[in-house]
Amino acid sequence: MTLSSDRPASFVRFSTAERWVHRTLGILILILIATAALLFIPDLGGLVGNRQTVRMIHEIAGFVLLIPLLLALLSRAFRDDAGRLNRFRPTDWQWLRSRDRRSGRIPVGKFNAGQKLNAAFSLGAILVLFLTGTMMFFSSYFPDALRTGATFVHDWLSLAFIVVVVGHIYMAFNDATARLGMRTGSVPESWARREHGEWATEELGSPVVD
Fold first, then answer.
1. What is the pTM of this model?
2. For residue 164, is it within any domain?
3. How far is Cα 118 from Cα 130, in angstroms, rounded to an integer?
4. Helix ranges, 42-188 (H)
5. Is residue 195 part of a domain?
6. In the chain, how many domains are there?
């Protein structure tokens, strides 16, 4: 379906590889959060009983977490989007300060400032949690001071990360079109022009025709 002979109705937003990486990371992160809650909160852990099994699942999911990110680097679309997420421009600060940031008045690229900040924090948190978790797993190789520090950072950063994940899920549930883009790979032109007008203009030459 097209709006006119030369203006398609939707745009490609995410490649198949990007969508699968997002889903895989999402599943692994939810497993990590669930098992962490069972290990950290005694009343919840008592519902399962086998603490060692829960710990093993948590550790396996933690070590596997980096694999989707490393494999994603083989995707050019993923690398291109990583570059976009890594660029913070003056209009991004303007978008953050604006009360009508979702009106389309401020030109926004493929990712808005909130998404860029979320991506930066999430990647940083994943790397730090992986490092501190590895130190806790191989605890016999590190002195007491490092083990204690790693445990402290791991626990408190996990709580902060959970808050960000919950916020991310909340925002996603309030934008059905954004979820559509991650589920199917494409979004309507009207949504793209309103939420990411600069990106929509750039992508007029490479849309998906429904």
1. 0.85
2. yes
3. 18
4. 42-48, 51-64, 66-72, 76-85, 90-97, 113-137, 144-173, 176-184
5. yes
6. 1
